[in-house]
Amino acid sequence: MPNFIDRRLNPKDKSLSNRQRFLRRARVELKRVINEKISTEKITDVDAGHAISLPVSGTSEPSFAPDRATGRREYVLPGNREFVLGDRLPKPGAGGGAGAGKGGAADLELEDDFRFVLSREEVLDLFFEDLELPDMVKSSLKEAIAFKPRRAGFTTAGAPTNINVGRSMRNSFGRRIALRRPKQADLDAIADEIAVLEAEAKPSAVSSERLAGLRRDLEVLQRRRKLVAYIDPVDIRFNRFEPMPVPNANAVMFCLMDVSGSMGEREKDLAKRFFVLLHLFLKRRYERIDIVFIRHTHQAHEVDEETFFHSTQSGGTVVSTALEEMRHIIEERYPSRDWNIYAAQASDGDNLTGDSENCVNLLNNELMKLCQYYAYVEILDERESAIFRSTDNGTSLWRSYRLVGKNWRNFQMTRIAKPGDIYPVFHQLFAKQPKTARSG
Amino acid sequence: MNKRADTSNLLFQSSEWNFNTLYRTYDAIKEIALDELGLDVYPNQLEIISSEQMLDAYSSNGMPLIYRHWSFGKHFVYEEHHYRKGHRGLAYELVINSNPCITYLMEENTMSMQTLVTAHAAFGHNHFFKNNYLFKQWTDADAILNYMEFAKGYIARCEERYGLAAVEPIIDAAHALMEQAVFRYNRPPRNSPMKERARVRDRLEYEERAFSDLWRTLPQRKADEDPTETERDLSERKKTLNLPEENLLYFIEKNSIILEPWQREILRIVRVVAQYFYPQRQTKVMNEGCATFVHYTIMNMMFDKGQLSEGNLLEMLHSHSNVVFQPGFDDPRFSGLNPYALGFAMMQDIERICTKPTAEDRDWFPEFAGNGDWRGTLLDAWANHRDESFILQYLSPALIRKFRLFALEDETKENHYRVASIHNERGYESIRSTLARSYDIGVNQPNIQVVDVDFRGNRHLHLQHTVRDGIVLDEPARSATLRHVRRLWGYDVSLVGVEAGSEKTLYETSSSKLAE
Fold first, then answer.
1. How far apart are CA A252 and CA A291, in angstroms?
2. Which of A13, A80, A89 is the best substitution to test chain B (most B C-beta atoms within 10 A)?
3. What was the pLDDT predicted at A49?
4. From A91, which residue of chain B is nearest by alpha-carbon distance?
5. If you measure CA to CA, which chain B residue comes closest to A81?
6. What pLDDT was estimated at residue B218?
7. Inter-chain contact A7–B53, Cβ cutoff 8 Å?
8. Is a pLDDT exceeding 60 seen at residue A99?
9. Which of A385, B176, B325, B327 is most buried, judged by most C-beta within 10 A?
10. Could you tell me which chain A residue has the CA closest to the CA of B400?
């Protein structure tokens, strides 16, 4: 007798721990790839699953293997059509012995350099790694859309714990009336009467006839009672629950960035991480997020993401133009009663003399009333960071923004020089009660 | 073909399978396999699995369980990616050389496919595992599953006790030497402790008897004055250490002085796994050929008995012919000789030679041409050959012509290939031996052996690579592997490439020269 075993229900993730080990092993390389992806990809795509192409270093499994580019070999191949003994065939990619050798090496690399898909969780883990986020924040960011079971009427099937007693009894009651189920009281009355008649010592013809009639009636009623149950499966109703996504509203995220010549690749990369983090946060809380990119030099424009991060524009620096533009867009497209407005601004702190006051006025009088949250990062040179980190001194923009920060609780600012510095800006946003009520 | 009205014998009609049909079909296959083909198999255990589980099995070398290591995870993500993207499908089945013989059947298979793969794996491969001399000699089907369970548990315990960071490098290094971790020719001398003690005692006695205080008074000779002294030393060392030793991992396991007992045990585990798979690598053509021939024969016999409908048979034939498809060398689909195609064609050819031999066959195979007993001839071939010897003995001129085989010489320095022989009278022999040699793992893998180790001095380990046909080792991989060897050995390791025949040193490298 053969032994058939159904293994389909056995656990599937036997390889999971090996996979994790492999990812840990390839961590350095993976991080580089992920960071590269983040700097080239759209902000909204960062937390999708990623196909990763991984070069061999760190995860190669070397062994003593023959070098394909040396020595003499003999192959046997099928499908000869026209060759005869002694024929000479040019090697593919001929042009010297070295050509063949190189071809072999390239093949080898192709084999080793392989692609695979990282899950969203794994990508985010790698992304978070040097942002120094607290664990709680990490796990809440990784959370997918939350569903909450909501009552949604009744159903005829379900778990016993979900039986709706009231509704079931109501059905049962209606059915009992419709099918005229005899009441216990009626039965009791007849039974009493029978007892009385039976108790008579000498039953008259009338009363014995009546007794027989009553007995018949009782029997009919009892049978009827048996047929029409008190509670029937058709009466039962269960509470129905439907998973409903936790209600989310719309949010719009403004990314403001100075793109004048002083913002180099490093600065832009830091700014991007800053924007990504805000986006991940918003994504968790809102169903629909629009992103508006505004870049500015001495004038501001709304642009698409590609232009925002990758093209340069020369000119001076007038920060207030960007704020103007933002106000303009809000008025036009994102009325603050329908939209939660978040803004993130990145700059190296340069501003035209005298313009910082304009910015403060704009923020104080108009924008901060509209915004849920406004985060500002000033990107420092690594060398400057030690000097400036602790002082209130700094660029004119920084000093002016300090005034705004005093007035508004939902205005956050910080100076950053490396990815790990970004999180504190959002500290309040990610705090346990992220109720950033509009002040003012 | 006239339509057969009688469907009462049919084992199944729909393409859906269920366990009842599987049982019924298994019994029908078994009857044919054992009674008509004379196969001899381990008891079967057939397991239905899903595609995820098949992927898991892939990445653990097809074993139902294996110790944890990142390289299996690497395999897994690789296979998974290709499967998800649709680059390649999964196997219909997977079979494990164990007793009972475990066969995995994919749940997606139709009933016809389940029939085909049951015949293929549970009887074809199973018979081969049980009867081929290599498997009998080198693998222990009864114990392998228990051993793997032990190995997995042992390594997990090591990780708990000594930390992942300590265990992983050992496995990495052991894996690097897996190719050099098998005994190719004989098992190592295994003395029982009792014998070992007896040997030591005898030796002491001899030394006592031969002791003569007079010798002490002779003037001492300096070692460098007398080359024979060092030579004698060397040969003495070689004798006690059983050098040269081809199984590097075995040598290191037994002789490295830096390894802890648990590290030795891990090396041993890797070595046992390598040795377990070694016969499979030497019998790919035969193993697949045997299984394919068995399923082909069985499904035809079942059809003849009226157990399969024409539709079922056609479905089976369709996948059968996909499996044994052999594109020509210039076809874009070509990726080497297909072991299924070659193996199956050779088995069929043997059947033909046994039953309907031509004059040429009688010339080439006088031992069995026309003996009529193809079953016996095949059973004998399956039991007593590996790919190399099987091809050398049974590849017929008719088949060489059918495959239009030709041999190509590739001298890397030249920028053209040379056709060395084709399928004609002059070429048969040489094509046959060339092809046979290309299946000889011993020839194709670098031959690296431990030749000397200086235990009294700096404990330098000397490895020697015997270079054949001028094929040297790939340098980056060589350096990386040497570093692994050094990690296990703990002292310097050097590798010398010596040309076979001329004894000329082609290259020399040492771990001390490699940057860590």
1. 6
2. A80
3. 65
4. B416
5. B404
6. 60
7. yes
8. no
9. B176
10. A78
Domain ranges within chain A, ordered by starting residue: 17-54+100-131, 160-240, 250-426
Q: Pick the residue with more confidence: B363 or B8?
A: B363
Written as six digits, the tokens of A329 are 């867009």
The residues spanned by each domain of chain B are 19-132+283-315, 324-442
CA distance A146 to chain B (A): 27
pLDDT band (50, 70, 90) for residue A316? confident
Residues from chain A contacting residue B19 (CB–CB below 8 Å): 4, 6
CATH of domain A250-426: 3.40.50.410
Query: Which of the four pLDDT bands, split at 50, 70 and 90, describes residue B290?
Result: very high
- Contact yes or no for A22 and B77 at CB 8 A: yes
Residues in chain A within 8 Å Cβ distance of B176? 61-63
- Inter-residue contact B40 to B127 (CB < 8 Å): yes
Question: In this predicted structure, what is the pLDDT of residue B6?
Answer: 60
**Token pair belonging to B273:** 């796994």
Mean per-residue pLDDT for B327-331? 86
Closest CA to B390 of B247, B399, B276: B399
Element (H, E) at B376: helix B374-384
Q: If you count residue pairs, one on A and one on B, with CB atoms under 8 Å apart, how many are there?
A: 261
Write down the pLDDT at residue A437: 39
- Taking residues B337-353, what's their average pLDDT? 93
Confidence of residue B144 (pLDDT cuts 50, 70, 90): confident
The mean pLDDT of chain A is 77
